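Posting this for the archive.
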Amino acid sequence: MCYVKIVLTLLLTQFIYSQLMKNYHQINKELHKVLNSQCFAKSVVLKELFKHLVEKSLKGEELREIEIAYEVFGKKQSQEKEKNIRIYIFNLRKKLKEYYAKEGAGDEIVFSIPKGGYEVDIKVNRKLVWTSRITKLSPYILIVSALFLIFSLLIYQGKNRVQITKSFLWNDIYTSDYPLLIVLGDHYFVRARNTLGQMGTTRYTSINSDKDFEALLNTLPPGQDDFKKTSQTYINKQAPFALYKVLSFLGGNQMNINMRYSSDLQWEHLTNRNTLFIGSYKTQGILKDVFEKTGISFDSKSSMVSYLHNDSVSVFQPDTEEFLTQEYASLIHFKTSDERIVMALMCNTDVGNIATVKYLSRPEHLKQLKQLLKEHNNTNFKALFEVSGQNQTDFQIFLKRIDPIQVDIDKIWP
């Protein structure tokens, strides 16, 4: 029911938006209204930049700093020029905020540039639209249009989901007779006494499982009870994002799907089930030893990912700059002798799994993976992705390595 309400709300908003945005000239008219305002009167550079961003966004073209620097300012690629672009974008956001606080307060259409990207978001001022437009619409037209949009949306989503589901990576899960258990990696919390002598819930990055907690207790003096296990937990933003994407092309309630947190996971939960783990490297819990035996391990102190291939190990160190995070996310996929499927999507920061799930939801990428696996003649594989992004926005993702898993699966999986 909640999903239906969300869909109907989105459809109604889209319907109102379509009435206002009948053609490009309408948007262009609103754009010139902003550019010719007193707020932008003395900002020639920001005018050109904003016009460029709007035109590119309307065409659905990707916006990158290098191209903005060249196309708007005619500057060649350099790290310094790219930083200047970010400063211009920052100032442009401030100008737009100032405009809509004053001259544009009554505008029906609102332009904005969400943080984490350069695409221009075009939204409708719902309050003004409702008061000035909605009363003019016939209720019959509204109902027919809403039904048409619902029907079109279902057809589009259905076609896209079927195309993804039929790919080699997801088809086995979708058509399997085994139910699917989705394990969301969650973080471990303990109760400890703070510097004021008060007991409170806290998180230690070195404690990520019962095993880690027990190791800590063994180092404490006898009788000391300052540390206690707690049932409180939390998951990173990448987990619900990835979960939503996966369920969208696995059919949601069309499959027998259950979910558990990694902190609650026991080996008996994995019996006679397909398993999909989604989480950070630190939240693998009891699955950590299994995934390390396939050839991917993570050092929580240095945040380095070790990748075993051809009897040698490659080490990948993430890099974080002022405006960009680079990390290494991984994918593990294997089948047991009784045809159960096990997959794992792991990362260090949120942007890793967010980018990987998007990658695995594109038919052309799945086709590429399938072709690479044919060369190995092995459906049990591991892959490493190099991801660049900021916060929860991924900018680039590259398939760094893909290799067969050499170990006997039945010896490492229950």
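The first helix runs from residue 2 to 20. The chain has a mean pLDDT of 79.
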